[in-house]
Design goal:
3 domains; 6-stranded antiparallel sheet; 4-stranded mixed sheet; globular; disordered C terminus; Reverse transcriptase Ty1/copia-type domain-containing protein; metal ion binding; DNA/RNA_pol_sf; RVT_2
Length: about 550
């Protein structure tokens, strides 16, 4: 706030109090979308009186203090805070001996804060009395707005503070300065993908049907329509003028194994959820997903207790979830129904809807609880059951990993409820390759390392023994370093995310690099971490996390 308003650092206390007050007015999800102010007062605050910290303030001088007729009616200052966050009063409270005349303040955001600071006396503005911070850190009711106009004894006599009446700004602040060209991304925001595809996937429906693999994509589209018809995802209804339609789009992708071989061509019909209206076509959207540390714990338990763990994939998972809201869908491409006369009324969730992940999670959770499973308190995506044998489930959207000594009965039971694909022994979990043998279980990301080195153009690089050079510190990037990094066509943030993925999945020894490399988040302070870390992962030992099997169970 101080940097944005170009105010001296001596006003840090006012900035802290203002920021604290604003935090108390902001609703949070942990408090059921209520703000601390509402929970304390029981009424919503009048936030229309809030203004930009450090904006220009015109203080109205009461007639009794103007002296004579042609005296100025107001003085100019800078907003540095509020009396209190009690916005349900017409005027801010003041001490008991304050005069009853209100002090009106008009805010004007058209002038920059630097102009106001330049017009003020620099020596006086920088002087801070020793008692200033004691008064500032007092309770909220004793804090008054501080302005540079208070230094004019002729306009504002030395009396107790007055009531303050707030008049909000009429227009938002306009950005008059030019945008720094270094802040404009010159590369693609979406990096290249090597893990899930071995060939370029079509981006549109027409390009898929005109591609060399049009037969495979046509079969994938037909398979998607068959699944939707079998699960009764929608009803074809007559189009009316008051219906708001949600658009559709097709997403094509190829599913590959850890070696990069194409296993399946998939086509997915998705809704354009950006056009949905909150409160009408969707309400809640958050859906939990499994955590990596939970998966690590279950794998370690399976290795220690000599348990099996298999993986199943729920086919067209979202299409099994009933939809509570009324959503009308436009006729998608590939469907022969007349678009001008008919539309689709959704009965089940489809991919792309904002509430689809939550609807699927609630659908699966309800069935698991019905069959005797219980959800873990620490991770809502981990379920366990002790009858007839101990069984643990790890759920990540439509991928379910089963841990237990007798897994087949559960597979048969869930296959009667949902259409699943039995993958068997888990070999690829969340992009991590699993090697399961009779005496140990290990995880590695060799395939991800190779794809990352290809992405950085470092396939022929030499491995290094440490992920970061000793005594290395961040330094400003040179023009040659920036040009070399930009030539890769990737984002610096994407490189940091890759390192973070390594550290959380299989390489915990990279954890200390992530906060150091993520400090700049741009190339203005270039760090060698994104380039050294893939070379370190190429060295081999950090690629694996291994758990030895033993007979017996964890106590």
């Amino acid at each position: 706030m101080l940097n944005g308003s170009n105010l001296p650092a001596c006003y840090w206390a006012e900035a802290v109090l203002t920021a604290t007050m604003l935090c108390n007015l902001i609703p949070t999800r942990s408090r059921h979308n209520l703000s601390p102010y509402v929970l304390w007062k029981g009424v919503p605050p009048r936030i229309k009186r809030l203004c930009i910290f450090g904006c220009r303030a015109i203080v109205s001088i009461p007639k009794s203090h103007r002296g004579w007729k042609l005296c100025p009616t107001g003085s100019e200052g800078i907003l540095l805070g509020y009396w209190t966050c009690n916005f349900d009063e017409n005027s801010f409270p003041s001490p008991r001996d304050a005069p009853s005349e209100p002090l009106t303040i008009n805010w004007d955001a058209s002038r920059t804060d630097s102009e106001l600071v330049d017009e003020a006396q620099p020596e006086e503005a920088a002087v801070v009395d020793e008692t200033h911070f004691e008064e500032t850190m007092a309770p909220c009711v004793d804090n008054s707005p501080v302005s540079l106009a208070e230094q004019s004894p002729d306009l504002i006599p030395d009396q107790a503070p007055r009531h303050i009446k707030v008049i909000g700004p009429q227009h938002p602040t306009l950005i008059n300065s030019e945008i720094d060209s270094s802040n404009i991304l010159t590369f693609s925001r979406r990096p290249k993908t090597y893990l899930t595809t071995s060939e370029d996937c079509p981006q549109t429906f027409n390009s898929a049907l005109n591609s060399p693999l049009k037969d495979e994509w046509s079969r994938a589209v037909s398979k998607e329509f068959d699944s939707m018809n079998r699960l009764q995802v929608w009803d074809v209804v007559e189009l009316k003028s008051d219906y708001k339609l949600v658009g559709t789009t097709w997403v094509f992708k190829t599913k590959c194994d850890p070696q990069g071989n194409v296993l399946e061509h998939k086509a997915c019909l998705c809704a354009q959820g950006l056009s949905q209206t909150l409160g009408i076509e969707y309400h809640k959207t958050y859906s939990p997903t499994g955590r990596l540390n939970s998966l690590h714990s279950l794998i370690a338990m399976a290795a220690s207790c000599n348990l099996q763990f298999h993986q199943i994939d729920v086919k067209s998972a979202f299409l099994n979830a009933p939809l509570l809201e009324i959503v009308y869908l436009s006729i998608p491409q590939g469907m022969t129904t007349d678009r001008g006369k008919f539309c689709l009324k959704l009965c089940k969730a489809i991919y792309g809807l904002k509430q689809a992940p939550l609807a699927w999670y609630e659908r699966l959770k309800a069935w698991l609880l019905k069959t005797g499973f219980r959800a873990c308190l620490m991770d809502p995506c981990v379920f366990f059951c002790q009858q007839p044998s101990d069984l643990w489930l790890y759920i990540h959207v439509d991928d379910i990993t089963i841990f237990g000594s007798d897994i087949e009965p559960f597979k048969k039971e869930i296959s009667l409820e949902l259409d699943i694909k039995d993958i068997g022994m888990a070999d690829l979990l969340l992009g991590v390759k699993v090697s399961n043998s009779s005496n140990h279980v290990s995880l590695d990301q060799q395939h991800f390392t190779e794809s990352l080195l290809d992405l950085y153009g470092m396939s022929d690089c030499r491995p290094v023994a440490t992920p970061l050079l000793p005594n290395e510190h961040l330094s400003p990037a040179t023009d040659d370093e920036v040009s070399a990094f930009n030539s890769l066509g990737i984002s610096y943030r994407s490189a940091i995310s890759s390192i973070n993925y390594f550290s959380t999945a299989t390489c915990p020894d990279l954890s200390f690099i992530v906060p150091q490399a993520a400090r700049p988040s741009t190339l203005e302070s270039f760090s060698p971490c994104p380039t050294l870390s893939p070379r370190y992962t190429k060295s081999g030992p950090c690629l694996f996390e291994t758990w030895l099997r033993r007979i017996g169970c964890l106590q």
